[in-house]
C-alpha cells in the first residue's frame, strides 16, 4: 500500500499508526482458515447429506469476508467510538443472550443459539469482546469514580456469569471470568479481592461438576477414558500421529472423514494430519505472536483504559485458541470452542474480528491523543 506519511486522510493516518505486524498475523490466520475449510468441510457436508459439498465453504467464505471488513473498519475508529461501540454491543448481546433462555434453540441440552433468517446466531460470542472493553472502561474509571465504577464492573460480570451458567455454557463462562480476573489484577485491585474472585471461580467449577451432568461427564472422561465415549479425541490423536512432521498432504487426510466436528472444534486435528507438526507449530506461533506483540505494544502506555481493554481482548483471544488446541491434543477436557479465524462458525469468526478490530484500534500509535478523547 503506497501511502505517504504526509497523507492526513483517515486511511493514511490509520496505515501509519496501526500495528501492521499484528494485522498481517491476523490476516494470515484468516487465510489459513480458508485453507482448512477447503480441507475439512466437504467431507462433513457429504456425511450430513447436505445439498452441496461446498455448502460450508460458501458460507464461511462469506463470513470470513465480513469478518475481515469488520476488523479493518473497527480498527479505524478513535478510542471514544470504540467505547461506545462496545457499550452498545454489550447491551445488545446481553439482551439476546438472555433471550436464548426462553426462545433459543436447544442443542445437546444447552440453549445458546437464536434462529435468524438463513443463519443461527450465538450472541454470547459477541458478549465476550464487548464485555472486556466495557469492564476495562469501568475499572479504569475507578480511579476517579472510586468504588462505584469497580462495583458496577463486578455487578455486570455477575449478571453475565449468571446468564451463561443458566444456558449453560461453562466454557464461555470460564473465558469471560478469566478475562475479568486478568483485568482486575492489572488494574491493581486489592489482592485479597483478586484472590477471593479466584476462590469463587474454583468453587464455581466444583459446583458445576456436581450440578451439571454433562460437565461432570467431560471431566470424568478426561481423567478416565473408560468412563464414557472418547471417540472424537481418540480419532483426533490418531490424526496427529498419522500426519507426523510434514503431514500426508492437502486433501489427503482420511481420519477427518470420521470426525463429526472436523470443520469446527477439531479443525486443529485436520491440520495435524494433512499439514503435520510443522504447520501446527506455525499456527501456535502466530497465535502466540499476536498475544505477545499486543502486550509489548502496551509498554509505555499511560491510558489505563487502553491497557485494561487490550489486556482483556488479548487474554480472551489467546485463551480461546489454547482451549481449542489443547482439547484436540487431549491436554484438557474437551470443550466446544472454536479456533479463532480457523474453525467454521459465522458468529465466532465475526465476533473474533470485532474483538481484534477493537484491539487494533486501541493499540494504534496516536500522535494526537486529543482526537481520540
Largest sheet: 3 strands, antiparallel
Chain-averaged pLDDT: 84
Instruction: Supply Rg.
Output: 21 Å
Order of strands side by side in the largest beta sheet?
1-2-3
Give me the strand/helix succession: HHHHEEEHHHHHHHHH
Instruction: Give the amount of beta strand, in percent.
Output: under 5%
Q: In DSSP terms, counting alpha (H) and pi (I) runs of 4 or more, how many helices?
A: 13
- Helix fraction by DSSP (H/I, runs of at least 4): 55-70%
For the record, give the distance between the C-alpha atoms at the N and C termini, rounded to a whole number. 28 Å
Using DSSP, what is the number of strands? 3
- Helix-and-strand structural type: mainly alpha
Number of spatially distinct domains? 1
Unreliable residue runs: 367-371
What overall geometry do the principal axes of the alpha carbons give?
A: globular
How would you characterize the overall build of this protein?
This protein has 373 residues and is mainly α. It has one domain (17-372). 69% of the residues lie in helices and 3% in strands. A three-stranded antiparallel sheet has the order 1-2-3, covered by helices on one side. The protein is globular. Mean pLDDT is 84; it is low at 367-371.
Helices and strands, with pairings:
Layout: H1 10-17, H2 20-47, H3 55-75, H4 79-103, E1 105-107, E2 110-116, E3 119-121, H5 124-145, H6 147-166, H7 170-186, H8 191-211, H9 213-223, H10 231-243, H11 267-297, H12 304-328, H13 346-362
Antiparallel strand pairs: 1-2, 2-3
Helix pairs in contact: 2-3, 2-11, 3-13, 4-5, 4-6, 5-6, 5-7, 5-12, 5-13, 6-7, 7-8, 7-12, 8-9, 10-11, 11-12, 12-13
